[in-house]
Design a protein that fits this description.
Radius of gyration: 23 Å
Shape: globular
Mean pLDDT: 93
Number of domains: 3
Helix content: 25-40%
CATH class of the largest domain: Alpha Beta
Distance between the termini: 12 Å
CATH topology of the largest domain: Polyamine Oxidase, Chain A, domain 2
Largest sheet: 7 strands, mixed
Number of strands: 19
CATH architecture of the largest domain: Alpha-Beta Complex
Structural class: alpha/beta
Strand content: 15-25%
Low-confidence stretches: none
């Protein structure tokens, strides 16, 4: 029997494939509801997600397993903006930032374009040591100053000179110089074309893991918060013990739970010594629901907006712009660090409401019927310098013990949803036979 630790999207999709293959398994999920970061939350009449989710991919066929589910999907044209503080007040700038340079004041536009062209000409093909060096020397001082440095310092709970270039190579496609010039002064491009449209379940992103869980024939156990893993009496087997004291024995383990928590549960000194190599963001999500008949004054047609300015949040998504089934609500995201780490939930919610008013989104505080904060841990695995080598060492040590890592949190891979489905498929086709043969 295979124990899958973690019932997020990765763990559920792996279980779905094991059901199809007729392989005995159990999914052990610590929360009362499966889905991980793909859960849809509910507060009274308001339904909302843990940040913006959209199904898209530049890899053909990557989402076929989603589209095969018994769900109704809407096809949405992406409308994403950046809130820019500059001369004359707040401006709405196109996203990605290098695509929206035409929305900047003229002098800032010149600064960004000239700086980018000088940087690209001075260091063609240069290998950068970390994200901070790439932003400053690769993108130029204008783009760095007006967006990339303040935004990235705001979102990451880690100094930028400690984040490796894996973040850029895996998530960001730098533009050639001619594209930057074109976007600033001539015809604006669409940015990353494969992201221009996306699928979204009409009943919310939480409908996706729920549909997968419904196919698992009872193998999902929620409320099973792993406390420790220990060798079982049977040779080569593991006993997984929950905080409640109940336990499950398994011949093999696939972990999609946060890697630092897995190492804690194992408790082996040699593995615990590596736990500090795996840094992560923890995130406050604050939902602000409007009273019936009220609307947002700014960004009202966007799905989500980025903030590099004085607001406590770095991103806000508008739940009602993903599906018409939802009343008007915005969800703000704040990395739980510095000031935000010291605030109580009600204080975080109050600060968000105030900053939404200051940025012109919320007309007045009285428009809000609901403001509620929720803290979610391990939202972003940080691709820190040296992490990959530490991960490879830990992964091999665990593989020899019959424990296999998979997914965004489980293997510390910064994956989008399409990447999760592809990682599961690769595991099933390329690694599972060796797992079963052990």
């Amino acid at each position: 029997m295979i124990a899958i630790l973690g019932g997020g999207l990765c763990g559920l999709q792996l279980a779905r494939r094991l059901v199809e293959l007729g392989i005995a398994h159990a999914v052990l999920e610590g929360n009362a509801e499966a889905g991980g970061l793909c859960r849809s939350m509910r507060s009274g009449d308001y339904s909302w997600d843990l940040g913006p989710h959209g199904l898209y991919s530049k890899r053909p066929g990557a989402l076929a397993c989603c589209e095969a589910l018994p769900l109704r999907f809407g096809r949405l044209k992406r409308n994403v903006r950046i809130c820019h503080h500059g001369p004359g007040g707040i401006r709405e700038v196109g996203y990605p930032f290098e695509n929206g340079l035409a929305d900047l004041p003229f002098l800032q536009r010149i600064e960004c374009v000239a700086g980018y062209c000088r940087a690209a000409g001075a260091a063609p093909g240069r290998a950068f040591a970390n994200v901070q060096e790439w932003i400053e020397a690769g993108l130029g001082p204008g783009i760095a100053r007006h967006f990339m440095l303040p935004y990235n310092r705001k979102i990451w709970d880690c100094p930028l000179d400690r984040i490796s270039m894996d973040l850029v190579s895996e998530k960001i496609d730098p533009e050639p110089r001619w594209t930057i010039v074109r976007n600033a002064f001539f015809t604006r491009g669409v940015g990353r074309a494969y992201q221009a449209n996306f699928l979204y379940p009409e009943d919310g992103i939480g409908a996706l893991p729920q549909a997968i869980a419904a196919s698992l024939r009872g193998s999902l156990r929620t409320g099973f918060r792993v406390r420790r893993l220990e060798p079982a009496p049977r040779s080569g087997a593991w006993r997984i013990v929950a905080e409640s004291g109940e336990s499950v024995e398994a011949d093999r383990v696939v972990s999609a739970m946060p890697l630092p928590e897995l190492l804690r549960a194992l408790g082996e000194p040699s593995l615990l010594a590596r736990r500090g190599s795996f840094l992560a963001n923890h995130t406050w999500f604050v939902v602000v629901g409007l009273k019936p008949g009220r609307d947002f004054a700014r960004f009202r047609d966007c799905q989500w907006v980025f903030f590099a300015g004085p607001e406590i949040f770095y991103r806000v998504s508008f739940a009602h712009n993903f599906t018409p089934k939802r009343p008007a609500a915005a969800v703000a995201e704040i990395t739980c660090k510095g000031e935000a780490a010291a605030l109580r939930p009600e204080e975080v919610a109050s600060r968000v409401v105030g900053d939404m008013q200051a940025s012109g989104m919320l007309r007045r505080e009285d428009d809000a019927a609901l403001a509620r904060a929720h803290l979610e841990r391990y939202t972003y695995p940080i691709q820190s310098v040296g992490m990959r080598a530490a991960r490879d060492e830990v992964e091999e040590a665990l593989r020899l013990r019959g424990i296999h890592l998979l997914g965004r949190s489980g293997r510390w891979d910064y994956l989008n949803m399409d990447g999760i489905f592809m990682a599961v498929e690769e595991f099933v086709k390329a690694r599972l036979p060796a797992v079963l043969a052990r």
